[in-house]
Amino acid sequence: MPGITWADGYDPLSRASGTYPGTQTARYSLRTLADRGLVDRGAVNQMLIASGLADFHWRVVWADEGATSDADINTRVSNVDGYVIFIHGWTGTNEIWEDLPGLIVTRNPHLVALVADHNGFGGTPFTNPMPDFEHCSPIGAMRAIERWLDVLKLRREPGERHFRTINFVGHSMGGAALFFLNETRFGLGEQTRTAIAPALLLRDEAHRAFYTTLGLGIGLVGRLRALDVIDHALAPTVLEVLTDGATDYVRDEHGHVYEATPKSVTARTFAAMGVITEYPQAHSWQSMQVILGHRDRLVGLIPMLDLLQELDFGVDQVRVVMGTHYLFSLGTSMQKWHTQNRVLVVEDILKQHAAALKRQKTG
Hints:
alpha/beta, 42% helix
């Protein structure tokens, strides 16, 4: 693989040891990389315009007992067997994943994690405070991620001798986005997908109505500031349901993002999960798995299982665990089961990666 040229263009204040022992991390801005000539400025502008975004931010996490020097960081990020792309959900940022990226890259140091802010939240804001549904829906989120990976040149190019797998991990709205990946752009074994508690509500009319109605309610608050009292009552209720089972850190992050994000963006993104009209088609879904929590109040378990059956998922591609919407986060609620779930999630991602890489090498 040609060496990555953008990896040393991180925010100089962001280089640090990761939150998980034995890891390093750095943060990046797409516009900053373009300004420094480390990625193609024209490609960046096209990606941001097509996605309705003002910028795109992410952090990179890699295994390293010491501190990788600037002279070595491009090589460290380039010479790998693959990447793990983390895609968060509604009102989230890259922080909601906590130690999960670090756990994965320490278990397999030949992987590097890219943990994105996306879809109008955190460091990736929309240019328009009233974004089009096509930009803020799970489908729009997936298209933005695909364009971002193209700018960074992470996908294996046809004829390239270095084998490399892109492993997508999405939660909630980010998990729903994975159903809309353009698989035709990947060869055999070049991608895997793990959708955790995906908010794909195509056959769940009750939850679709909830998302749409609540999104309209948040939007009304955003337009009529005299109704701030409604917002103060609404936000805790929504965030309590969303972060059920999560740590205080994750709860606080969602609360901060909810307050910092324009209400029109929050509303349209929430409502967009209830008005998806593009349906994925049934097929083999090779190298994709779905993990669901039995007490998830945001994703109906039975309607989701019915949808997966309709889409022709195999029994071995679906895992139901004891847990909530944040089935991998170790909050005080259901901590015993969520601790076990986190181990299963890490193992599933690594097994999928190993199997996909083997298929790629053996043809």
